[in-house]
Amino acid sequence: MDLLKKITVLSLEQATVLPYLTFLLAQDGMRVIRMEHPVYGDPNRLIGENVLGEERMNSYYLCINAGKKAITLNLAEPEGKELFKDLIINLDVDIFATNQLPRNYKKLGIDYESMKAIKPDIIWLGVTGFGPDSNEAAYDPILQARSGLMDLTGEKGGDPQVLGIPLPDMGCSVHSYGLLMKALYKRAVTGQGTCINMSMFESSVSWLTVPITQTSSFGKTITRRGNTHEFFAPVSVYQAKDGFVYLAVGNDRQWKSMVGLEPFKGLDKPEYEKNEGRIRDVEHLNSAINNITKNYSSEELIEMFRSITVPISKIHTIPEVLKDPLVEKILLRSKDPVTGKEITLAPPPNMTPFLKQSNKELSFPPRFGEHNEYIYGEKLGYSRQRLQELKEKGVI
To answer: N or C: which terminus of the chain has fewer CB atoms within 10 Å of its end residue's CB?
Structure first.
């Protein structure tokens, strides 16, 4: 939507939770400016391999920062605070976002009340680990541990495991995205800005829909179950000749179709007709299914189960995911104008009009302070001499 191209986002961001959010906003075509401290910058710039042969452009940083511009600013300095006000007013910033600790808001002049005084219709987002009243440091695995996500992940009877992706980070980003869209709608209708406080912990716990109701209301014990399902069977990983498949039988009708297949007819027993009976004997049932599936290739199994409309998939490695025809056509690209290096980026949750117009290409992740001269000079009108003075003083 072309309207979103008119939205300017200024984000004092680092790590994953906020950069992933602004990565999504950039995919909508919004003008995203990431702001960093002129000395310390975003620590994630230093993580991963130095694939470009230059400082602060390591591989981990490149994954979720395409499509943005980057400036540096020291908000602890009085001149930095004045420059910040200039940015908000003269760039007509629509959304300001930060994942600083709450104790730094007032000190840096980025609290909602201070910013509302500068621009009354500002949409303000503060992402924290545990809410605006807590200054507790939060990394994704800590949130996985405290929210119960880790207790639900791993083999039955085994140790808790972290998830394969940082869901507290990225899930909170997606929740924040939705709140920003509501705030933009509210402003369009009423002209009023919004203050949004987003807790990564609250976001993480909100995913526990079944575990919380089952535990609190019905006294069930919900914990790690490995690859099986608490309420449905057979649902698990099964061995094939050439790897593994995940099979999910979601109801008794699908089970009847499954045991109608020639290789599985021996499992057509009265005690397995209902899901409850299959759950009761799930270990023996899964072992019996595994003894059958290991005699077939994954493709043979997929063909079998697709013929009866029962969900099945080979468990793909990431290289195999990249070759999936549904994925290949929606992957994003970004090319470095300096080195010519092209990187592949994860696809969007859905293909936005902006990405269609740009042929699924985003500008290369910005270098540290790359757009200082463009933003402060061209957009705000600061002379090169003034910018040099500010740089020497450690303001930018």
So the answer is: N
